[in-house]
Design brief:
The complex is a heterodimer of chains A (145) and B (359). Chain A is of the alpha/beta class and 145 residues long. Chain A is built from five helices and five strands, in the order αβαββαβαβα. Helices cover 37% and strands 14% of the residues of chain A. Chain A has a five-stranded parallel β-sheet with strand order 2-1-3-4-5. Chain B has 359 residues and is α+β, with helices and mostly antiparallel strands. Helix content of chain B is 47%, strand content 14%. Chain B contains twelve helices and eight strands. The model of chain B has no long low-confidence stretch (mean pLDDT 83). The chains are: A alpha/beta (145), B alpha+beta (359). The structure holds iron/sulfur cluster. Iron/sulfur cluster (SF4) sits at the interface of chains A and B.
């Protein structure tokens, strides 16, 4: 376990969600669920972040924003699609301005189901993301990525 | 030096849980003008009425916004019920009030937390959200969901709350009221908090009216307007009055919301005492034919649903005017002339819900 996995920093961006998943992301960081006990800290700066939490689906307007945030994050990084909107477009799938899930523009490592997601599921995702961060870092060290 | 600079604010910004973009034209530290750009979350769900039938669309309406989801679903139902001339049973109407007010309490607590975060009072942020979890527990016990309730439906509600449960809820809320008071005291009494809120972002009564502000934003500017007073869904049988403040600054908006917490607890209590046994829904037959504007009061202000049916199971047109959308123009007005450091607080005092505004 390295420094990275002991305290992974997350950044959260809301694609075109209904807000339900966003407030659950925040709720997961609050005293009741307290994601911070795993060292997870919420940051607003992509350059500090290791895990990108994306809620909501992708549309024409936010495509470049999501891509931009992802590109600015340092390697290794993990992307988590939060909620069914970020997974596939969910209930809004058939809307004219919804192009689909987060994987339309960035490579997604974990999909967290739910509409809205439950904070417990987010904690699961964070724990899984930490393990993957370690793996990616080791691969980088070994010169494989 | 008094050159003008443009500072971009958003769409991804630490104080914003949701994306909105403002170009702030500043002269030194003073904001001269704010130019908004919205549309990052536009989904186009009004057109979805063509693909989902009028019964199913309740679920979509609930997901216009995850914070006031129940009221969105309910107002859509109000519109369709009026078109179809459906009489909703009394018990269902009071249950709708209970869930609406629970939404209001959790939304206001959420807002208080985010505002505390915006002026850098981290522990107050955490305390407000801790309290909000207790309200979410009640919501989860009665509906099964934490943010999306799924309990509104055309013709009534989907779930019932037993009399004992209702008493328990009222008792719980009464005990949380003390904690809400404690938080309220810090917001309204703390000297540093007052420094950040008093006299900041003033919106005069005249401009609030002229620019069409709604909800707490309007009431904090001294206008007594609350759509609940129109008496939809049995609100007319309850005894209450709009909460109005005169100072028209961020502090007044904060005070309106804190006082509304108390009011909502009171409303739930009186709705509980008026609830009589009976059915919670009626059978819906036929299809909507005709049109109607339904209005209701959300935590953020007035929401309007327009529904037009043409006798098929798909509505012909559905339109939503959400409170945040109405409050963006007043927001731009209040931003003029403020200090750059006050921008996050002012933006938050309209309680922006961008996913509502852009649908
Ligand atoms: S998954 Fe559901 S709750 Fe989450 S953003 Fe989408 S519609 Fe809202």
């Amino acid at each position: 376990m390295g420094a990275l996995s002991k305290s992974p920093w997350i950044i959260h961006y809301d694609g075109s969600s209904c807000n339900g998943c966003d407030i659950e992301v925040l709720a997961a960081l609050m005293p009741r669920f307290d994601l911070e006990r795993f060292g997870v800290i919420n940051t607003g700066n992509p350059k500090h972040a290791d895990i990108l939490l994306l809620t909501g689906s992708i549309n024409e307007q936010n495509k470049s924003v999501v891509k931009n945030i992802y590109d600015q994050m340092p390697h290794p990084k993990v992307v988590v699609a939060v909620g069914i909107c970020a997974t596939s477009g969910g209930i809004f799938r058939e809307c004219y301005n919804v192009q689909g899930g987060a994987d339309k523009v960035v490579p997604v490592d974990f999909y967290v189901p739910g509409c809205a997601v439950r904070p417990e599921a987010l904690i699961d995702a964070a724990v899984a993301a930490v393990a993957l961060l370690d793996k990616k870092r080791d691969a980088m060290k070994a010169g494989k990525a | 030096m008094s050159g003008r600079t443009i500072i971009p604010f958003g769409p991804q910004h630490p104080v914003l849980p949701e994306p909105i973009h403002l170009d702030l034209v500043v002269e030194d530290e003073k904001v001269i003008e704010a130019i908004p750009r919205i549309g990052f979350i536009h989904r186009g769900l009004e057109r979805l009425v063509e693909k989902k039938d009028f019964i199913d669309f309740v679920y979509v309406a609930e997901r216009i916004c995850g914070i006031c989801s129940f009221i969105h679903g309910m107002t859509y139902c109000l519109a369709v019920e009026e078109v179809m001339k459906i009489e909703v049973p009394a018990r269902a109407q009071y249950l709708r009030i209970v869930w609406s007010e629970l939404s209001r309490i959790h939304s206001h607590l959420l807002w208080l937390g985010l505002t505390a975060d915006a002026f850098g009072f981290e522990s107050l942020f955490m305390q407000s959200w801790r309290l909000r979890e207790l309200i979410l527990d009640i919501i989860e016990e009665t509906t099964g969901g934490r943010v999306i309730f799924g309990s509104a439906k055309v013709g009534g509600v989907r779930r019932d709350i037993s009399a004992e449960k209702m008493q328990e809820i009222v008792k719980k809320l009464r005990s949380y009221q003390k904690e809400m008071d404690d938080i309220g005291k810090v917001f309204l009494g703390d000297l540093t908090v007052q420094h950040r809120l008093r006299g900041v972002g003033v919106l005069s009564t005249a401009s609030a009216k002229a620019l069409g502000a709604v909800g707490p934003m309007l009431r904090a500017s001294g206008v007594s307007s609350d759509i609940r007073m129109m008496g939809y869904s049995s609100y007319g049988t309850l005894d209450f009055a709009p909460i109005v403040e005169q100072d028209a600054d961020c502090y007044a908006r904060c005070k309106v919301r804190i006082r509304e917490l108390d009011q909502s607890v009171g409303l739930i209590e009186s709705a509980a005492s008026k609830m009589i046994d009976g059915p919670i829904d009626v059978k819906v037959t036929g299809t909507p034919n005709g049109e109607f504007f339904a209005r209701s009061e959300q935590p953020r202000g007035e929401v309007i649903y327009y529904a037009k049916g043409n006798g098929t199971k798909f509505l012909q047109r559905m339109r939503v005017r959400t409170p945040t959308f109405a409050n963006i123009t007043p927001l731009l007005e209040t931003l003029k002339g403020c200090q750059l450091a006050d921008v996050p607080v002012i933006v938050l005092t309209i309680d922006p819900c961008i996913s509502c505004a852009e649908r």
